[in-house]
């Protein structure tokens, strides 16, 4: 072939410099010397003497022009074996894949340069020639024989030691640089994509067909070839562009990309429809966790992490493209969940370097006023981007998986219970066999999800991230007004230092930056803590006590303040997360934390806890009625635990004293509102429980009497369903009712006078009398059901708890009087019934104290009757319109103008801050004392008592 036909002609050097022929033979494995010539080496060569005319002396050097021509002819050979001079390394000599051949030549050239410094200049010239030919081959691959370029590069990567040697990376760098010299940037990138997209396509296919165990390490070796070298950001760009679907792609499209496929590999199936590939041979005796799978998962995640990290570090363009990919992937998978990110409106997203889409639509800790614009920094840094993207990824993946896992756990528990019930009666029953089959089918996805969520290394990484998040949340919320104002001079609001400020008693300054902090950040932490408490992954968090400090401090701060978190649901969830730090009573397993004993701000937990307890029901922050009891369940457990420690008991005492000093404050004291709601809860829960138990008893009797036998199948199933549903309701009410009564018992052991205050005493005594009568009186049989334990019904324990409360408050005359004046449930026989039951249930030690109480109540009742006889026929205007008793301190309600007794309206406003007669807003500071009426009543009372006293003297 002449130069006219040679596409390399323009590249041929004009230099007449001579290059050592032995060096050329050792590097390119061809010779222009005749085959018959005696050779001192046994390396295989191709003899091109008949192909290329060599005018130079066979023993001297070769000019660069001739060498260029010879190399070109060599890589264009269609059948190299025809020219082979046998020897070692024949496969290298006859190699027909152009880039593989030139890559080997490049490596050999570099080795000679290192070994023989006197040949450095000649080696550099040869290397330039090699790179020129590679560039041409990659830009015009159809001109050359051998396999496709992508197959050749794959071989180069896979056969290199350590998958990407320095020489191989240098080879790639120089090849890409040459392509960009020879072509315009867009054409050059297009040429590279034409070469490497097919390679990435094959890698993607390989990933799609692999699972966590079968995925080969060489997949990551090959992908690292694209991201390892900062000198070739074009390779990283190729990888990102290849794995990016069209702009309008849905979530499934991202999963089907190369990186999406890597993210999809875990113990779980790659999609919701399966198939599940692990735990297929599960038996009921099998282990629930598999450390070998955990190790595979940890290795895979570490490899994926390093791949993404290197891509982000390659250059600014690739970093933004990768962040954009993650942001769009998350957004495409949001479904009905709003995307998150601080407060940047869409129009400013690009300008402020915010990758997350629709950030402004996220629900944040605090609302903004109408037409108020959220505060945002001038620009957001890389760490900020990663922080919010990570939280969104957790929300969409881990949090959703945890919710699914909890649901599956409940279903499996119910299925296992049903299976045990059946096999205990008839092990060979077909229904039992079907249940076992269903149980095994459900266990495989359950165990896969379980092992995926509880992998230790990933759990530790999540823990550390959430610990940092908790510290960050606390720091940005406790910023002073002065420091907050100074942020404007920095053009950002990030906490540049950790101040570790002491938690305040009251929040004085609320930074408006909280209007841009998504609720999901706290919700993610809460979800993690609750999951870690209830499931085995909690064992790992114990190894990092510093996280306990951070989480505890964050919970106390946000749980008790509506100035920092508006949403009462979220604050209630924080109280639930606080339960994480309690000892696990169910398992008896020790939990190695001393946070309640050692944290310097631990005593703030009591007012914070009471605050959230009240806030989930008070006007303006109410939650659904059933939901509030779910939220309060962990609060009861926490308070019961705190009551075992004297310093916390003293906190309750202090709050009670403060409440008694401010009983008629504009805003009722927190402790007063707390015990008022506690009594409300007890009344509702125990009343509901008794009603449900009565219905359960009726259904059980009907079933036992055979009344269901002749009913149609649909009606029998309906009765079974009703019985099951009532049982669930009763169980829920009994558990919470028991906790409520227990907490009242604990409180009244140390705090008494506030329960006996005139605004509270009638309510607690009527509650105690009502439930005691139902549990010990003539009607107690109405609540006697089969399998009381199944419904968590323990009437004996409830009677004992109620008796303790009576005894705790028995020293108060106002309490004893109020007991006697309860016309609904009290009678002189009430405590006689109680004594009989106490003997039967092992409460004999209480009988003496209850007898003393009964005697005192009877005495107070007699005295009261005498006084009421004297006060009979009181003028109607002297009577409280709600309680129908003589008022002692009448007040006028400002909007309805109705006069009521001060104690009556004070009690009403604890639960409902409105006028009971017209629902207008009302607080105690607005009521108007009716001094004229009060004086009239006092004069009338004095006259009536004097008259009664004279009558008694005459009678005696």
UniProtKB/TrEMBL annotation:
InterPro entries: Ub_conjug_fac_E4_core, UBE4, Ubox_domain, Znf_RING/FYVE/PHD. It comes from the Eukaryota. The keyword Transferase applies. Residues 873-947 form the U-box domain. Belongs to the ubiquitin conjugation factor E4 family. It is found in: Cytoplasm. Pfam families: U-box (PF04564), Ufd2P_core (PF10408). GO terms for biological process: ERAD pathway; protein polyubiquitination; ubiquitin-dependent protein catabolic process. One of its GO terms (molecular function) is ubiquitin-ubiquitin ligase activity. CDD domains: RING-Ubox_UBE4A. Its EC number is 2.3.2.27. Its main location: cytoplasm. This is Ubiquitin conjugation factor E4 A. It is an enzyme of class 2 (transferase). Ubiquitin-protein ligase that probably functions as an E3 ligase in conjunction with specific E1 and E2 ligases. May also function as an E4 ligase mediating the assembly of polyubiquitin chains on substrates ubiquitinated by another E3 ubiquitin ligase. Mediates 'Lys-48'-linked polyubiquitination of substrates. It catalyses: S-ubiquitinyl-[E2 ubiquitin-conjugating enzyme]-L-cysteine + [acceptor protein]-L-lysine = [E2 ubiquitin-conjugating enzyme]-L-cysteine + N(6)-ubiquitinyl-[acceptor protein]-L-lysine. Pathway: Protein modification; protein ubiquitination. GO terms for cellular component: cytoplasm; nucleus; ubiquitin ligase complex. Keywords: Acetylation, Cytoplasm, Transferase, Ubl conjugation pathway. Coiled coil: none annotated. PANTHER family: UBIQUITIN CONJUGATION FACTOR E4 A, UBIQUITINATION FACTOR E4.
């Amino acid at each position: 072939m002449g130069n006219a036909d040679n596409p390399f002609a323009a590249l041929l050097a004009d230099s007449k410099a001579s290059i050592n022929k032995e060096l050329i033979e050792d590097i390119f494995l061809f010779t222009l010397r005749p085959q018959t010539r005696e050779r001192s080496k046994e390396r295989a060569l191709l003899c091109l003497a008949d192909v290329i005319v060599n005018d130079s002396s066979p023993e001297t050097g070769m000019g660069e022009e001739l060498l260029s021509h010879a190399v070109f002819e060599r890589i264009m050979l269609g059948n190299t074996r025809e020219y082979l001079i046998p020897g070692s390394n024949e496969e290298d000599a006859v190699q027909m894949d152009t880039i593989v051949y030139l890559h080997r030549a490049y490596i050999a050239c570099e080795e000679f340069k290192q070994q023989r410094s006197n040949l450095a200049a000649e080696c550099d010239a040869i290397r330039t020639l090699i790179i020129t030919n590679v560039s041409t081959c990659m830009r015009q691959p159809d001109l050359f024989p051998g396999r496709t370029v992508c197959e050749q590069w794959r071989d180069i990567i896979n056969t290199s030691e350590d998958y990407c040697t320095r020489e191989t990376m240098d080879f790639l760098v120089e090849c890409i640089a040459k392509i960009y010299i020879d072509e315009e940037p867009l054409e050059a990138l297009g040429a590279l994509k034409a070469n490497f997209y097919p390679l990435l396509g094959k890698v993607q296919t390989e990933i799609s067909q692999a699972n966590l165990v079968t995925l080969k390490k060489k997949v990551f070796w090959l992908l690292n070839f694209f991201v390892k070298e900062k000198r070739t950001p074009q390779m990283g760009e190729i990888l990102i562009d290849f794995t990016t679907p069209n702009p309008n792609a849905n979530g499934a499209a991202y999963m089907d990309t190369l990186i999406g496929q890597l993210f999809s590999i875990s113990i779980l199936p790659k999609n919701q429809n399966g198939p599940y590939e692990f735990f297929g041979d599960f038996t009921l005796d099998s282990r629930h966790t598999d450390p070998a799978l955990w190790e595979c998962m940890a290795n895979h995640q570490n490899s994926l992490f390093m791949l993404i990290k290197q891509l982000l570090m390659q250059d600014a363009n690739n970093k933004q493209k990768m962040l954009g990919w993650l942001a769009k992937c998350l957004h495409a998978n949001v479904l009905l969940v709003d995307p998150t990110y601080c407060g940047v409106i869409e129009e400013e997203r690009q300008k402020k370097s915010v990758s997350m889409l629709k950030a402004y639509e996220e629900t944040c800790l605090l609302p903004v006023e109408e037409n108020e614009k959220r505060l945002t920094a001038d620009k957001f840094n890389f760490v900020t981007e990663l922080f919010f993207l990570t939280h969104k990824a957790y929300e969409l993946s881990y949090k959703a998986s945890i919710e699914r896992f909890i649901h599956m756990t409940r279903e499996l528990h119910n299925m296992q219970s049903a299976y045990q019930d059946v096999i205990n009666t008839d092990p060979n029953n077909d229904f039992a066999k079907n249940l076992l089959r269903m149980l095994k089918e459900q266990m495989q996805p359950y165990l896969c999800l379980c092992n995926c969520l509880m992998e230790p290394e990933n759990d530790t990484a999540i823990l550390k991230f959430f610990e940092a998040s908790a510290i960050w949340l606390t720091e940005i919320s406790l910023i002073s007004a002065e420091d907050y104002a100074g942020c404007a001079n920095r053009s950002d609001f990030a906490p540049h230092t950790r101040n570790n400020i002491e938690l305040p008693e009251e929040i004085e300054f609320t930074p408006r930056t909280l209007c841009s902090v998504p609720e999901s950040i706290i919700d993610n932490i809460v979800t993690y803590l609750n999951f870690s408490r209830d499931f085995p992954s909690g064992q790992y968090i114990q190894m990092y006590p510093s996280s306990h400090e951070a989480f505890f401090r964050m919970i106390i701060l946000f749980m008790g303040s509506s100035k920092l978190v508006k949403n009462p649901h979220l604050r209630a969830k924080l109280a639930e997360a606080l339960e994480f730090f309690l000892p696990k009573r169910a398992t008896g397993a020790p939990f190695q934390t001393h946070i309640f004993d050692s944290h310097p701000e631990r005593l703030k937990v009591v007012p914070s806890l009471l605050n959230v307890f009240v806030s989930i029901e008070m006007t303006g922050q109410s939650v659904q009625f059933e939901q509030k009891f779910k939220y309060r369940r962990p609060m009861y457990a926490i308070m019961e635990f705190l009551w075992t420690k004297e310093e916390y008991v003293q906190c309750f005492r202090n709050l009670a004293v403060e409440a008694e000093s401010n009983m008629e404050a504009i805003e009722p004291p927190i402790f007063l509102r707390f015990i008022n709601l506690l009594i409300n809860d007890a009344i509702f829960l125990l009343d509901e429980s008794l009603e449900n138990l009565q219905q359960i008893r009726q259904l059980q009797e009907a079933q036992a009497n055979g009344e269901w036998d002749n009913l149609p199948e649909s009606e029998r199933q309906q009765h079974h369903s009703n019985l099951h549903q009532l049982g669930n309701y009763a169980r829920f009410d009994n558990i919470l009712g028991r906790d409520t009564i227990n907490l009242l018992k604990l409180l009244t052991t140390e705090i008494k006078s506030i329960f006996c205050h005139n605004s509270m005493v009638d309510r607690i005594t009527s509650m105690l009398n009502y439930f005691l009568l139902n549990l010990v009186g003539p009607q107690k049989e109405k609540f006697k059901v089969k399998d009381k334990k199944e419904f968590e019904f323990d009437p004996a324990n409830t009677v004992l708890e109620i008796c303790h409360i009576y005894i705790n408050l028995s020293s108060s005359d106002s309490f004893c009087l109020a007991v006697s004046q309860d016309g609904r449930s009290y009678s002189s026989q009430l405590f006689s019934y109680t004594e009989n039951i106490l003997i039967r249930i092992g409460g004999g030690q209480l009988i003496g104290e209850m007898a003393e109480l009964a005697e005192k109540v009877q005495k107070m009742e007699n005295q009261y009757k005498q006084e009421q006889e004297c006060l009979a026929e009181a003028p109607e205007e002297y009577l409280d319109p709600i309680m129908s008793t003589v008022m002692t301190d009448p007040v006028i309600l400002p909007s309805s103008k109705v006069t009521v007794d001060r104690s009556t309206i004070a009690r009403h406003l604890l639960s409902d801050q409105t006028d009971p007669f017209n629902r207008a807003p009302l607080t105690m500071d607005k009521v108007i004392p009716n001094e004229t009426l009060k004086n009239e009543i006092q004069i009338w009372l004095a006259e009536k008592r004097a008259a009664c006293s004279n009558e008694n003297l005459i009678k005696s």
